[in-house]
Every structure is written in C-alpha cells, then in structure tokens.
C-alpha cells in the first residue's frame, strides 16, 4: 500500500452467495466407511455446498454482487475484479460475463486474477491502490470458486462452492485497511490444476505444512516490524480450506499467549469459522467468508454486553494461495460496519438449502462438467449458467 495517501481505504460492503443445496459430511463419512468424527472434529467441517450445473463462478459471482448492488453508487464504480482458480475460459475473463449480467457501464474496467486461493486478496490490494489514486471511485472485488477434489479422495470432505463480493472505497463502512502488510512467496508444488483437469492435484500433508510455515514467517516478520503483540488484536482471521487448518495456524500464533489473549482469540476464531464449517472451501473466498462470519456472529455473540459493537477493533488476516503466495495484513472495524452486512439474509440463505443424499451429490459431481451443451436446471431465483451455444457460454436470470 502507498504510505503517501491520507485517505482511509477498505471494505465498504460485503455480499455472499452459496448454491441451494448441501451435503452433510456425516452422511459422506458413513458412505466412505469413515468414522464421522474424523470429518466433523478432525477436519472441522459440518456441511459442504454442492453446485449444480447451473452454478458456476459467473452466476455465483453475479448473485453475490446483486445482494449489495442496491447500495452501490454505479456512477462511482470504476473497476470490477474477479479472483478465482475455477476459470471458465482460457482467454476471456469471468468478470466480463458478470459485468454484462449486471448491466454495468462499458466504461468500467474489468479483469480476472489467478493465483490459487490468493486471487481475491490480490484483487483487494489492486483495488486499494486504484482507490488511493482515484478516491472518488469504488471497486468491486469478487471471489468465486468451485472447490473439487474427486469422489473418494482425501480432499473430498473439504470441497465447497460459493462467492463473496466486496465493495472497496474510501471511508468505508466495514473495514479500513492498514499500511502494514507482510508478504511472502515461493515456487512450491503443493497444489495445482493442470490444463484439462477438472479436479485439483494436491499433496495434502505438504500443503498444510507449507501453509503453516508461510504463516509463521509473515507473522514473525510482522511482529518484528511493528512491535505489535497479540493483545493489540481482537481477532486473527485465516484462509480456511477447512476449519482445522486455521486452528493449526492460530495455535502457532498462540504459542506464547497469556490466558486472556488465548481465550479471546480462540473464541473469535470460532465465530469466524462458523460459515466455513457450514459451507466448505471457497478457495479465493475462504478468508473473506471468515471475515464475514466473524463480523456477523461475533457481533451477535457480544450483543448481551453493551451494544455488542465491534467498532474500533483491530483485526489481522492471513491470506494463502498454494503455489505459493501469502499476505498477513490488518485493518480496523469501522463504526458503520453493520450497514455493510446482511446477517439475516445470509442466515435465510443457508437455512433454506436442500440437504442432498450422497447418491444425489455424486450424480451432481459426475455431471457438473459432462454436458455443457444442454440447457441446465434453473435455480429458484437469481442468475444461472444456461449451457453453451455455438461455443459461447450462456447465462440467464430466473
């Protein structure tokens, strides 16, 4: 970030979308002849969102933006960025499809960023610099992904799908980003998806160790650079491919913590993990699902004491993308943060989902990429992917 600008820049609005169906991981465990506790406690998951053929990164991203679009001054919007590792075309960006679906102005710049699960964070900081240069402009950053590892694989329980949309602006309502980020990258083969593969390839144990090593590096560098300690933070939030991964990183941070810091940070981690536990892995959106979960659950959890406000709280966020790139950055919650959230809408969305049988889930998984030239089933509402016509992807709205 630039240290020359005095304008406060950060996240002003947040939207979320998940598919209309899910799989209970205990059902999956029994079907795979695994003790359910291995998934629910060992991995830390309860449910995973399952996309239908009509759910892809474009439709989910457009639906996440649509949730916050009424609050956006379109005349100020200058840039739309999609972070994803579930690309739909080797050339054309998903952001252009989304921009068209939402009928956004042609003057708006639009592109896609890929670096595994780090793509949305890269987009967030591109947005930061854009607003620093154009304080009267805003940016939409969308994280949209479908996490797939294959039926019966070790990573199957950590699948998921969905999208998070963020409006970045000067003087935001939710979170002001601080000028203190710490970055680290290296050429690592822990997770990748070659051309032609519909599922990721991953060395799970190695990837977990790299994640933890990268976190320790940037966390230690950050503390040395800033002299800030655990008592300066209300919450530490993490990229959560599965919730137990973030807990392992939190334990690294808490190695020398006192009782009060440990209690506060562990409690707030649990608040941040609730959506991830119920939705699964969103790849580029996982960190921001954690942020949204913490804002909407910690706020309610503290409502019995004073007004339950999180305003003024300094938080830290750890973003990781395999391959590998990470960033440790911080921000401060703003007094108007509740204006940028839709907790009741998100609760309704999650509670209204259909519970699939394992057989239904397996059929959806097998068919997801199998018949792109046919008209798909329509969702009950919102944007959806409608198949391919003359090699061009088609989208519509229910």
TrEMBL record:
Keywords, ordered alphabetically: Transferase
SUPFAM superfamilies in the cross-refs: Thiolase-like
Matches recorded under CDD domains: init_cond_enzymes
GO BP term, pick one: acetyl-CoA metabolic process
Ranges where the Hydroxymethylglutaryl-coenzyme A synthase N-terminal domain occurs: 8-171
Annotated transmembrane regions: none
Amino acids binding (3S)-3-hydroxy-3-methylglutaryl-CoA: 149, 248, 281
UniProt xrefs under InterPro entries: HMG_CoA_synt_C_dom, HMG_CoA_synth_N, HMG_CoA_synthase_prok, Thiolase-like
Active site: 85, 117, 239
Pfam families (alphabetical): HMG_CoA_synt_C, HMG_CoA_synt_N
A GO term, aspect molecular function: hydroxymethylglutaryl-CoA synthase activity
Hydroxymethylglutaryl-coenzyme A synthase C-terminal domain sequence ranges: 185-260, 270-363
Family designation: Belongs to the thiolase-like superfamily. HMG-CoA synthase family.
Name of the featured protein: Hydroxymethylglutaryl-CoA synthase
Protein source organism: Bifidobacterium aquikefiri
Organism placement in taxonomy: Bacteria, Bacillati, Actinomycetota, Actinomycetes, Bifidobacteriales
């Amino acid at each position: 970030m630039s240290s020359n600008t005095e304008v406060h820049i950060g996240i002003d609005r947040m939207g979320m979308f998940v598919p209309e169906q899910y799989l209970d991981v205990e059902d999956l465990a029994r079907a795979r002849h695994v003790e359910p506790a291995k998934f629910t406690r060992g991995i830390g998951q309860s449910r995973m969102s399952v996309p239908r053929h009509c759910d892809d990164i474009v439709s989910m991203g457009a639906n996440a933006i649509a949730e916050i679009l009424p609050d956006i001054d379109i005349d100020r919007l200058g840039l739309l960025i999609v972070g994803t590792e579930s690309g739909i075309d080797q050339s054309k960006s998903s952001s252009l499809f989304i921009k068209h679906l939402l009928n956004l102005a042609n003057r708006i710049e639009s592109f896609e960023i890929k670096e595994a699960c780090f793509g949305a964070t890269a987009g967030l900081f591109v947005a930061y610099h854009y607003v620093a240069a154009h304080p009267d402009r805003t940016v939409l950053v969308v994280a949209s992904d479908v996490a797939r590892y294959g039926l019966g694989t070790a990573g199957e329980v950590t699948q998921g799908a969905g999208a998070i949309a963020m409006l970045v602006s000067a003087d935001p309502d939710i979170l002001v980003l601080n000028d203190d980020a710490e970055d680290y990258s290296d050429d690592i083969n822990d997770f990748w998806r070659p051309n032609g593969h519909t599922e990721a390839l991953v060395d799970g144990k190695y990837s977990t160790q790299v994640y933890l090593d990268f976190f320790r590096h940037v966390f230690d560098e950050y503390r040395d650079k800033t002299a800030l300690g655990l008592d300066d933070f209300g919450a530490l939030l993490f990229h959560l491919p599965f919730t137990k991964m973030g807990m392992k990183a939190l334990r690294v941070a808490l190695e020398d913590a006192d009782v009060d810091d440990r209690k506060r940070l562990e409690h707030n981690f649990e608040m941040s993990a609730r959506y991830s536990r119920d939705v699964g892995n969103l790849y580029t959106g996982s960190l921001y699902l954690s942020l949204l979960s913490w804002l909407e659950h910690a706020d309610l959890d503290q409502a019995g004491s004073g007004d339950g406000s999180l305003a003024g709280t300094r938080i830290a966020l750890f973003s990781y993308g395999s391959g590998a790139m990470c960033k440790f950055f911080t921000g401060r919650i703003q007094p108007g943060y509740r204006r940028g959230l839709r907790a009741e809408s998100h609760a309704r969305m999650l509670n209204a989902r259909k519970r699939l049988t394992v057989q239904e889930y397996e059929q959806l998984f097998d068919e997801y990429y199998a018949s792109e030239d046919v008209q798909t089933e329509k969702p009950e509402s919102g944007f959806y992917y409608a198949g391919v016509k003359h090699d061009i992807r088609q989208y519509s709205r229910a």
